[in-house]
Amino acid sequence: MSSPVFKYPNKISLANIPTPLTPLDRLSEKYGGPRIWLKRDDLTGSTLSGNKVRKLEYVIAEALDTGADSLITCGGLQSNHCRATAMVGAQLGLDVHLLLREGGSSVIDGNLLMDHLAGAKIDRIDRKTYFSSLSKIFKEKQNQLINAGKTPYLIPTGASDEVGIWGYISCVSELIENFQNNHINPDLIVCATGSGGTQAGLTLGASLYNLKAQVLSYAVCDNAEYFASRVKDDVNRCLERYGVNWDVNRLSINTNDSYIGPGYAKGYPELFSTIQEVCRLEGVLLDPVYTGKAFHGLLTDIKLGKFSDLKDVIFIHTGGIFGVFPYRSQFKK
Ligand SMILES: *Cc1c(COP(=O)(O)O)cnc(C)c1O
Predict the structure, then answer these.
(1) CB 110 near ligand 1, within 6 Å
(2) Is the distance from the beta carbon of residue 293 to the nearest atom of ligand 1 less than 6 Å?
(3) d(CA 198, CA 206)
(4) CA gap 207, 217 in Å, rounded
(5) Backbone phi, then psi, for 266, in 5-degree steps?
(6) What is the whole-number distance in angstroms between the Cα of residue 225 and the centre of ligand 1?
(7) What DSSP string runs through 162-178?
(8) Which of 32, 92, 196, 272 is the most exposed place for a label (fewest CB within 10 A)?
(9) pLDDT in tens, the chain (333 residues)
């Protein structure tokens, strides 16, 4: 491998990595397409489980560099990112302020329960205000904390910015080691995309490390056009800020937006059946908001013969286990 043209920024160690790569052979055989492998990023921690902790390793390092003693971030009521931030804050002795968007079940369950247990300070914001004035609400919270003598650091939705995406650039180097250990050279890496940071990091990483595999992301909210420009923006900011000499046009940004269903965090019967099937066949639990939708998309596309010429496909299991429980009534008994 030629030596990379970039240097990683500082990070702090929070995630339980490297995570394993495991084949799903019963499922692959049943669907008759490529061999499906899971990158087990649901195993990056117990309370820190999932993809957000890889991004937070870089983002919190920067927060600490700026002398921050408190963190402000935002998301849905059942946000995995907010839960991970709440847990990291408790672990490091930083105050955590969460701006949570109302919607879905308002029972204190799953991630929201964990936010409370970790002592995060929570503002619940109605959807209309959230969508129209989020940056204003961030500013107000920031000023309020500064006036109280605190030094807050703002983390954007999903920790998806030019700092956070380093978490998934570095995941690509980990994947290369997984591939070598398993003697495979996969054609495709699949993940769910929501705030776009995982997709941006993997897509940039695949290009920087000159992988054969393309990255394909299944959208759980916005359309493919949105993610194409979002990923480009975040990557450009990253290249510029860290002085990486790379052309964004070398990236192949691929998004499938056909499996979102009725909307973000809204399920549909085939999705819940897929989650149950994967759990029964492989003992792996996917979530209805992110990984379940993306995996349902992948399996459906395999069934449609879309990937019949591929040998090995990698699915990044980005976590989300605590988000399963608020959907308990929608699974078949
Ligand atoms: C946030 C999240 C994603 C999406 O990652 P982004 O970087 O926000 O696009 C995927 N899966 C799970 C479980 C998540 O919590």
Answers:
(1) no
(2) no
(3) 12
(4) 15
(5) -110, 125
(6) 18
(7) TTTTHHHHHHHHHHHHH
(8) 32
(9) 455 689 999 999 999 999 999 999 999 999 999 999 999 999 999 999 999 999 999 999 999 999 999 999 999 999 999 999 999 999 999 999 999 999 988 889 999 999 999 999 999 999 999 999 999 999 999 999 999 999 999 999 999 999 999 999 999 999 999 999 999 999 999 999 999 999 999 999 999 999 999 999 999 999 999 999 999 999 999 999 999 999 999 999 999 999 999 999 999 999 999 999 999 999 999 999 999 999 999 999 999 999 999 999 999 999 999 999 999 999 998
DSSP annotation of 8 reads P
Q: Which two tokens stand for residue 236?
A: 């450009």
Query: Would you state the structure tokens that stand for residue 301, as one six-digit string?
Result: 């596309």
- 79 assigned to active site: yes
Compute, in angstroms, the gap from residue 323 CA to the centroid of ligand 1: 12
* Å from CA of 197 to ligand 1 middle: 8
**Catalytic-labelled residue, pool 49, 70, 79, 217:** 79
